[in-house]
Amino acid sequence: MVMSDEKFYFLVGICKGITYILRFFQLAGFLTALYSLLKVPNKLLTALALFLGTEFILWLINHILLFHVPNEAIAEIPTYNVVTAIIRIITLSYLFIFVLKQSKVLTVFFTCLAVAGIFYNVFDLLNIRDRNVLEYVRYSECFSNFFICLLSLNYTLYALLSHKIRKMKLIPLSLLFFCYFTIKLIYTTFTNFFMNQAIQSQDVFIAMLSSIIFDFAFYLLLLIFIVKKVCSKKKITTY
């Protein structure tokens, strides 16, 4: 079912509003973590700052390149998708492999898997050429999302089995990443099946809108986690 132009641009406006707010959450989370790091170094906040900072910068570049497009706030280009997938593998591998440390065997396994994923995505990036977003099949994103799901799920199970309070305190963070990237994996798989449909198809657009809403919730919760982390550090230093 194809929407009328009036309804389409109305929903685009809603998507724009939600997108700009969630990008504000990204920037706020990055700046909050950075402000805390300037006072007291912290590996966890460093990893989260890297993740949020690179996500925001890549979106900003994509936004500038597509500024002339009517729905530029939600539009994407294949290069942006693949580069984002590569950066996510790097930043979140640093978080879940080297900051939230696990057993040596799992560290080696996930490091090798991350390197293989980066090489695959670089190969995909070199073969994009002139394909637009409707022609591009998001295999690189699917791999990236699946890999991050594995990382976060593995840490959650490892923390539960370790029975160490310090590790168990970070389970909500790992579950947040697991839930979000599981939803993103389902979404990217869905878009691969409906790649040739027009963006004005109601089903496709609703799927895009729901994805943006999940993005909104994820970055809001991540911002709340960072603020609580920074506030707890202040209390410790105060006393």
Describe the structure.
There is one protein chain. By secondary structure, the protein is mostly helical. The protein has a single domain, classed as Rhopdopsin 7-helix transmembrane proteins, CATH 1.20.1070. It is built from eight helices and no strands. It has helices at residues 5-39, 43-65, 78-99, 104-126, 139-162, 165-168, 171-193, 202-238. Helix 1 packs antiparallel against helix 2 (43-65), helix 4 (104-126) packs antiparallel against helix 5 (139-162) and helix 5 runs antiparallel to helix 7.
Secondary structure elements and pairings:
Layout: H1 5-39, H2 43-65, H3 78-99, H4 104-126, H5 139-162, H6 165-168, H7 171-193, H8 202-238
CATH architecture: Up-down Bundle
Query: What's the end-to-end separation, in Å?
Result: 62 Å
Strand content: under 5%
Overall morphology:
globular
What attributes characterize this protein structure?
Rhopdopsin 7-helix transmembrane proteins; 8 helices; 239 residues; mainly alpha
Short synopsis of the structure:
The protein is an all-alpha fold. It has eight helices and no strands. About 80% of the residues lie in helices and about 0% in strands.
